[in-house]
Amino acid sequence: MRLFSAVTTAVALLSTLVLAAPGVELKAVLKYDGPTKPDSYIVKLKDEVSKEDHLSWLDSNHNSTSSVTYRDWQTNVFHGYAGTFQPDALNALRASPDVDYIEEDGVSEGSATVFQNNAPWGLQRISQNPRLINQNPLDLNFTFKFDDSAGNGVDIFIIDTGIYLAHNDFGGRAVWGQTFGPYQNADGHGHGTHVAGIAGSTTYGVSKRARLVAVKVLSDSGTGINSDIIAGMDWVAQAYQQTGRPSVANLSLGGAASVAMDAAAAGLVNSGVHTVVAAGNSNINAAGISPAREPSVITVGASNIADARWASSNWGGVLDIFAPGENIISLGITGPNSLAVMSGTSMAAPHVSGIIGTYITTGGNLFPANMAQKLDQFSLLNVLSNIPLGTVNKLARNEQP
Questions:
Q1: Residue 185: DSSP 8-state
Q2: Per the CATH hierarchy, to which homologous superfamily does domain 113-395 belong?
Q3: Which of 27, 221, 295, 361 is most buried, judging by how many CB atoms fall within 10 Å of its CB?
Q4: Which residues partner with 46 through β-bridges?
């Protein structure tokens, strides 16, 4: 996975060789069309299978040739696990009747072009109808119309590189949730902090009273393992169930097509968490990008100040909406008052996450599918140019047009 974000997952379940009996068909391992973590796999169990019993079998028979890295995922997001497996253990898993499918643990990444400056034109564009064509996106003379209670009582989970909690513009509302992967509890990249700032910082954010929760699944180089990302989504679902606070998950990341990633994202939505995903920054059809291609998530493309699709934004039938994503000013990590400018669908997605936080505060929480309908109903229609055939022409708004 990459930012937009990069991530890779490890699934390890097999150990000593339990050779398949003659005539037993070995399941094919689903290939990941991108870089992978060596000898690492995500294992999806059949719904009726007890994971506890299955892992007990694995530990008993294959302990020396398998290493399970994520065995405690909850079934409401993804009924399975991840790990590293030697060939004998992998073949035993491929032969096991417990297993639904096995997928290579891929790497995803986040995409954003960084340069220093400041001008939150995007906040005006999502709150007012008049176009901003021929205006400078780096000016600071734009007006944001919003409800001052926006985000109150809402958790926005930033599944990313982490958040620089000490930044003054968070006003103490940013907290560390959990880290998945061999990383420190800090944002050494800046992508996650920038995304969080758009979603809910005091000056540059949409949902200015929301609590922003860091879920670090990407390294300080902006890449990560898919299994770590799935673990992050699983943790968010559990946190939502424990607190009962209306919750939004922002995933400004993606990678090659992954059945496991899509299933986990769908599980997060089914748990009741509004899930917003960046479409990707390759100017291609996002139908091959996970988790952007998952139908139940809200997939966001990027627009620019001229109301055109940002040149690198992905497109296609899996997109649900567009939001500002080019030359976006938000928070930096070089100091408590630092700013940065980035471009990408990574920046568009948190505009939508913040808008959903606003909708929850002003109109009450809804089931994710109903919230997606509201986002659709409030959007501006057919105002964007350079939209390929078969792609929605809808620009997100924080209130009824």
A1: S
A2: Peptidase S8/S53 domain (3.40.50.200)
A3: 361
A4: none
The reply to whether omega before 182 is within 30° of 0 (cis) is no
Whether residue 295 contacts residue 269, with contact meaning beta carbons closer than 8 Å, is answered with no
Listing DSSP states for 43-98 in one string gives: EEEPTTS-HHHHHHHHHHHHTTTEEEEE----TTT-SEEEEEE-HHHHHHHHH-TT
Q: How many helices (H) and strands (E) would you count in the chain?
A: 8, 21
Least confident of 43-52, 153-162, 163-172: 43-52
Class of 7-106 in CATH: alpha beta
**Percentage of residues in the chain having pLDDT higher than 90:** 73
Question: Could you give the residue numbers annotated as active site?
Answer: 160, 191, 346
Beta bridge pairs of residue 341:
115, 329
Could you tell me the residue ranges of all domains in the chain?
Answer: 7-106, 113-395
Please give the sequence-ordered ranges of beta strands (E in DSSP) within 211-327, or none if there are none.
211-216, 223-225, 247-251, 253-256, 274-278, 289-290, 298-303, 321-324
Burial (CB < 10 A; 0-12, 13-18, 19+), residue 21, is exposed
